[in-house]
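ok trying again, last paste got cut off:
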Amino acid sequence: MVEYIYFLNKDTVIIKPPKKSPLFLRTVVVLFAMVCGVCICLICLRQIGSITVTKFQDIQITEKSSQDSHIVDPERRIPHLHYPTPKTFSRGECAHNPVRFFAILSTQRSGSGWFETLLNSHVNVSSNGEIFSVMGRRKNISTIIETLDNVYNLDWFTSASKNECSAAVGFKWMFNQGLMEHHREIVDYFNRRGVSAIFLLRRNPLRRMVSVLANSHDRYAKLLNGTHKSHVHSQDEADALSRFKPTINSTSLMSDLKEVEMKAAMALEYFNSTRHIIIYYEDIVTNPMKLKDVLEFLSLPQLELTSRQIKIHKGPLAEHVKNWDEVFKTLNGTEYEQFLHMDYKV
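nice, full thing came through this time. structure:
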């Protein structure tokens, strides 16, 4: 650039700065605009990120509240009403009485037998036992659907059947009896036929493990006068069975507990779209009023439910495990430590 010098007189000299190039001014403007654009983008991205986190937190809160209430999908609280027409008998004057369909989904030695006797003590409930324990009824999805149709058409007869005037009909279904293998077709059937699922789970799978091992031992030992009994109706029988203390495999204990945990989570995920309720065995033991939630879920009259079954393994868990010190050492300080101390009074 060239500077222009003016001489006003011999004593005065004025130096005038040169004119700035238009190209320089345009460059400054462009740079300023770019900086502003970057700042605006950063602010927007930060706001979007905070919104995303908020929405994710809202989802977590919603899911937790659903689990706390035990009834998932609150918009479907009212069960479907059915009017079956059995092929084997006439419902007579009860033909116009609606029937609710349900299934108790659980695992062996989780209290499902005791829970079912409680339901069957209701004058309007027919729960037909562990019908898929017979392999032929679950060999493929066709035999499963045929069996389900017979149950829900009231053409399935057991000692629990109340036939004509049943207001709710169902059965027990263990996770390992074809339920998980054919879950897609079964979920479709439940949703299409309006079957309500009752999940009965254990809060302490370590206690369940003791029950499984003790029951497995008695299949061969037959401690009650040469007879195997999975459930008992007298305190003497319960005391006789509880004297056997099983040994728990401490080497595979962590992985065994993880497997049980994952299986329950998988079942809940598979059947998430069905109308269902989650009940815990320990909650019913400590608070029988929880049974009211089940009757409400099935839209049945609130009646007192009773059972003749006697609990076998009572008191602290340490009294029922032969190698308790080993088990304690294995689980102490782990995510499963709580199971060592999770006891309840009966």
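cool. The chain has a mean pLDDT of 84. The two ends are 99 Å apart (CA to CA).
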